[in-house]
Amino acid sequence: MDGTSDDFDAIIIGAGIAGASAAYFLAERGMRDILILERETQPGYHATGRSAAVLVEFDLVRPILQLKLLGGRFLRHPPPGFSENPLLQQSGILILFQGPLWQEVLQMVPDLRQLGVRVHILDQEETVSRMPVVSPENFDGALLLPQDGHIDVNELLWSYLRQARARGARLRCNEEVVDITVERGRCAGVRTSSGAYRCQWVVNAAGAWAGKIRELIGPSPVQLTPHRRTMVTFKPSDGLDVQQWPLVADLSHDLYFSPESGGLMASPMDQDPMPPCDARPDELGVARTMERLKELAPRLVPRSIVHKWAGLRTFAPDQVMVVGEDPDVKGFFWLAGQGGAGIETSPAVGQIAADLIAEGRTDLVDAAIYSPARFK
After folding, report:
1. Furthest-apart CA atoms within the chain: distance in Å
2. Where does the chain have alpha helices with state H?
3. Best exposed site among 25, 150, 305, 354 by fewest CB in 10 Å?
4. Residue 3: is its pLDDT beyond 70?
5. What is the pLDDT of residues 146-185, one digit of tens each?
6. What predicted TM-score, i.e. pTM, was given to this entire model?
7. What is 93-146+225-315's CATH topology?
């Protein structure tokens, strides 16, 4: 088709990490007529641009762990020429646990190792020797994931988009989808604030707005809920060199902290449900962060906060992502409900979506686990 056509093979709603990865993998499969529509003025404005952006090859939800493992392979070894800079800094992830949760996690370690995850079990003494700021009375042990760490989310997002556009995909920002055309039970196109487009597939990668997008067609069995997460940055105490620290997460007491721009970033791991919006930090969330730092790592409590912000993490009721064709509307494809794992799993989820759209099947996972049809 020529460059001015308004007919597309696929229209992807949302230019965050999910939509960008889908565009890349569909283009890799040879699909050229792809349109990515973004309601904001730039890609990655919401959840993608406000994430801690780390690879953590551990998860208590097994289907999410599977996607993280697949994503990690890509992030460590992307295709030649995919990105201009490395995608992953293997700075390490240190996860603290206490009580019954620690015992549960210890039972998971052999399976993690069999799956190829490099993981070390640390007792209290070993943990404190690596991270002297944590209080040993608050945890029984820790897992160290030395090959995981920080993802360059800007590099990853723009590499997906750059590669997709080089293969013919088009990106249009500041263009909001206001209606979806359905003909004889199948999606046939979308109408936006700027015009109308026809297509074979509509890919719903709208993040916190994914439920609202589906409501343009009608009621859906898929129910997604956005949750706010608060983050703060601050300067470390005098004398602390934090730049080589791993991300430290205490999953028994809901706190993580990590090096960030010469200082530290911390979050109380809050998950306050709310409608989709341009999320703003909650003062209660900021206060929780300080309270938990005081209890778990008192030496880190800052005199003042440099910056605070919030993002939305969107979940399905079972905490598993929603990836697949809508059970009621053909041609409407869900790519949503990534929770807090959208960036690290995007290489897997994007490829799975492309497989399902192109062939109706995938060899990477059991697609039924992630399918929206599970809610029927």
Report:
1. 68
2. 17-28, 62-76, 100-114, 124-130, 153-166, 210-215, 283-296, 342-359
3. 305
4. no
5. 999 999 999 999 999 999 999 999 999 999 999 999 999 9
6. 0.95
7. D-Amino Acid Oxidase; Chain A, domain 2 (3.30.9)
